[in-house]
Amino acid sequence: MLNVKQLNFSYDQTPILKDINFSVNAGEHLAIIGESGSGKSTLLKLLYGEYDVTEGRVFWKSTEILGPKFNLVVGYDFIKYVAQEFDLMPFISVEENVGKYLSNFFPKEKIERTNELLEVVELSNFAKTKVKTLSGGQKQRVALARALAKQPELLLLDEPFSHIDNFKKQSLRRRLFKYLKDKNIACIVATHDSEDVLGYADEMIVLHQANIIAKNSPEQLYRHPETPLIASFFGEFNVINDDFIYAHQLKVVAKSNLNAIVKQCYFKGSFYLIEADFKGKTLFFEHRLKLDVGQSAYLEITK
Ligand SMILES: Nc1ncnc2c1ncn2[C@@H]1O[C@H](COP(=O)(O)OP(=O)(O)OP(=O)(O)O)[C@@H](O)[C@H]1O
């Protein structure tokens, strides 16, 4: 189990993280969300032992995670960290990068393990390709496979799918997170993307102004977002009668007290997202048909 106790951190005078407390069980999946600059990457780096905490302690089971003041070599065998910049070896092949830290004493096992991981990240066809010729998204997938090679107990992922195209992203997410669950590998994922969280994370932490402002299951935070920041992570929303109402929770009806005038209509595939004016305030709602600018629409909350 990972235990983070009263962690405080600053690079200089400004506190970046204040009184951070949480734990993660073996095999559990925790998502960390927050605006850009809220300290997500810094927190992952502290959990990896890349920096020394200013105050507080971090434990994985009974081992204390310590930074460079205490360790000559940064990091621990049981933790792997895939940063936003992946530090691969460009002049060797994909399979050599993935197998780099696997023992050559067991060549058959090394090949099997490398092949298994290349399948997880859907790069089997690129096994012999030199990394320098790969695209950014392909390199990110090599970095993920390499982090898993010597099965870690805890995997730290910083925006793990940021370079990967939408065609691959969905299936890669499913494969990777299923693999981690099957192998009981705990993971902590810093992300801006609600698709990385919903359906996968067991718990979610929201960082804001150096503090954890919410910690709960994604379902609870989705259903009861306590702040606009949390609601906005999940999609367009409105504040009506002090309540957060997602765009899909406003329905067009024949008559109601909520008469909005359409300002913009955005095609979203299976629906249109409509931006409308209601008494000088902007409202967002979803509708299956296109509406004309200037048209009036009666709306009802369907929460
Ligand atoms: N090496 C560093 N030295 C000084 N300040 C830093 C350093 N790295 C990050 N910071 C600052 O710490 C704050 C948190 O940065 P961090 O990268 O942890 O945020 P983040 O939430 O991961 O952002 P993003 O979502 O954009 O990746 C920012 O204000 C950043 O400028």
From TrEMBL:
Residues 2-234 form the ABC transporter domain. SUPFAM superfamilies: P-loop containing nucleoside triphosphate hydrolases. The keyword Transport applies. InterPro entries: AAA+_ATPase, ABC_SmlMolc_Importer, ABC_transporter-like_ATP-bd, ABC_transporter-like_CS, P-loop_NTPase. It holds the Pfam family ABC_tran. One of its GO terms (molecular function) is ATP binding. The keyword Cell membrane applies. Keywords: ATP-binding, Cell inner membrane, Cell membrane, Membrane, Nucleotide-binding, Translocase, Transport. This is ABC transporter ATP-binding protein. It comes from Geojedonia litorea.
